[in-house]
Write a structure and sequence with these properties.
It is built from two helices and three strands. The protein has 105 residues and is α+β, with helices and mostly antiparallel strands. The protein is globular. The mean pLDDT is 84.
């Protein structure tokens, strides 16, 4: 399976290669966190545990045969309490790298 044939991460749209000519007029849109509004748990990396744990619970879940760390941002599936009605990440919540890197993956 090639990289472009890989399924996108949860919340992301289709994956395409970045092309400076084709994407020259594009930028990061306002309210970019809207993609994460339906995610109730977001993957974390080890260096994020302390900062994320100050804002939300950090849990570990099994994904196939591996364990992954997640920041719980909602108690109901498809609900993210860290994204406001405008699609902006709330300033009082830690913003995980998973969200900061959007739309790149």
């Amino acid at each position: 399976m090639s990289r472009l044939d890989s399924p996108p991460p949860p919340g992301f749209g289709p994956i395409s290669l970045l092309d400076r000519k084709r994407h020259a007029q594009r930028g990061i849109r306002p309210h970019a966190a809207r993609f994460a509004a339906a995610l109730h748990a977001i993957p974390l990396t080890l260096p994020e545990f302390i900062a994320a744990g100050r804002a939300c619970p950090v849990v570990f879940a099994r994904a196939g045969s591996e364990w992954i760390a997640l920041m719980v941002v909602g108690v109901v599936e498809h609900q993210n309490l860290c994204v406001d009605a405008n699609g902006d990440w709330r300033a009082d919540c830690y913003t995980p790298a998973y969200v900061r890197r959007y739309p790149f993956c």
